[in-house]
Task: structure prediction
Amino acid sequence: MGLKQNYWYIFPALFILVFVFGCDVGRQLPICTDTDGGQVFDTLGYVNFNASGRVTSFRDECLSGTTVVEYFCLEGHFPFLNASACPASQSCVNGECKQVNVVTCIDSDSGLTYSTSGQVTVTLSAGPPKIFTDDCLNNLVLKEYYCSSLNSYALEKVSCPGGCSAGACQGSNVSCTNAVKDGSETGVDCGGSCPGKCGLGIGCFVPSDCSSNTCSGGVCVAAAVDSCVDTDGSNALTFGTVTYFNSSSGLNSSFTDSCLNNVTVNEQICSGTLRSISLLNCSGGQSCSGGICVAVIVDSCSDSDGANLFFQGTVSGNKTGVPYSYSDSCASSKNVSERTCSGVNAINSTSPCGVDGLSGSNFCQTGNVYRNFTNYSCAVGACSAVNTPQLISTCTSGCTSGVCNSANISCTDSDGGLTYATFGFINFTNSSGTYIQNDACVTPNVLGEYFCTGSASNGSLYSCPAGQSCLSGRCISNTCVDTDFFNNYITNTLNYTNSSGSFLFTDSCTGNTLTEQYCIGVNRFTTTFSCQNGCFNNSCLYVYGTSCSNPDGTNFSIVGNASLSLSNTSIFIYNDVCFNLTSVNEAICLSAIVNTSGNSRLEWNATLNRTACPFGRNCSLGRCN
Result:
């Protein structure tokens, strides 16, 4: 009767008609909307296509009892369709896939009877019966419903040689060999109901009218083919883009090179007319960044002034591929923030420019004894030292080589001369009488030392060395002794001596907070701890456990912890933490033999033990770096 149509090609013809005859050149792109939001097979939807104000609608429908034709929008502008099988145990009913079964199917015109308009009545396992009536898709194509079995139905679209009207093909004596374009033919004796296909440039209505199986703008055209273009030609050192045209979908897509990981490039390439991906490994000394292989920048560090406090220097280099540059600066008027290198790492440390005080040897000036007083300061990232002469002794008989000329008859020194660590005095006699002059502290750090040069009496100012102070006319070493060695669980008495004298300081409790006295070198400091089990008798209370684990031991170069297990299965964890820039509180395990009623047992505890980092190393994130 008529030529059976391939369902996939019906819609492109409809699209061409709507788009070509409903659009004008230069106007905006058409608008396409889908009421069910896309390819939603279990919901009946409608696609509305607006081209220059002309609106065409398409309704989801059933191609058969198990196949749904789903209309949807492509990129919001163009309608498209997909014929898909419903999931197992579902049937297509009224344009939707539903969990129902067709029980019976009855066709009023007894099958594929194109010249008679009929109805297919489908009885379902749930819900009312569905009725599908033969109708005309247009004036040349018939939609013929029929029963494909006793319990399933199908739809066939056929071309009517004599035209379609009232749901049936009309009669015609059209010939496909009369050298005349008539009936449903789209060219002379080709297309439409004729078995012959039309050649390129000949009119067409649907793709099946053409020998190329491609109909565009009502004319048979050459079939589109896939194409692929790669801008960088599979070069891992160049960022590229692959542009791929898929003739089946009619879509142009672009794909750019990317990184699979830090050493592998996802290189987009063309294999003939097809797009594919090639995994390219970067060469040694390279890494993947931004879709290409780039040179790896090695970590480095250089210091322009070699850690000289009296020059403003700059530390520069690279860290994990990022360049940096830091200049020395002043932390205060007396301290410099000195940038230096530790291997390939840039570090920053604050150092005093110096201790203000007398420096150098005595010298004679204006007949009296002088000595330079050095004042240190920081400006523009560098230390400076300014010397100012300071009067030490006024000489009555002049000055020679930094010593007053004396008219004394005799002079004796109880401590035997320039003995700065021993208190002494001089006993001298001159024409005016006999005198005693005691060694004395001029400042907490400067000693006035008297001595004899022959029968002459002399004096000089002496700056006690670092770590010493002046007390009772002599330089003494500052001392600081911590009896509990920074242990929070032992009551501590700290002995501290400086220029003001000797003092005792004791740890103390405030609620559950312990104020811990401790020493760094010869200097005294305090800090506070929150005791987990309470603070009593000036120390944190112990909680003994059945076992204690400390994987890193006392290794202050590794961040670790001490894990204390209690008899009630509770676990306390003490983590290594930095006490300050140069000291780490290292978590450790302690054990003790406890005797109770004649029975002894091993009990465990965990605590923090303060450890000074080695010289030149700082504490960061619980370890000495």
The longest strand covers residues 583-596. Helices lie at 10-22. The longest helix spans residues 10-22.
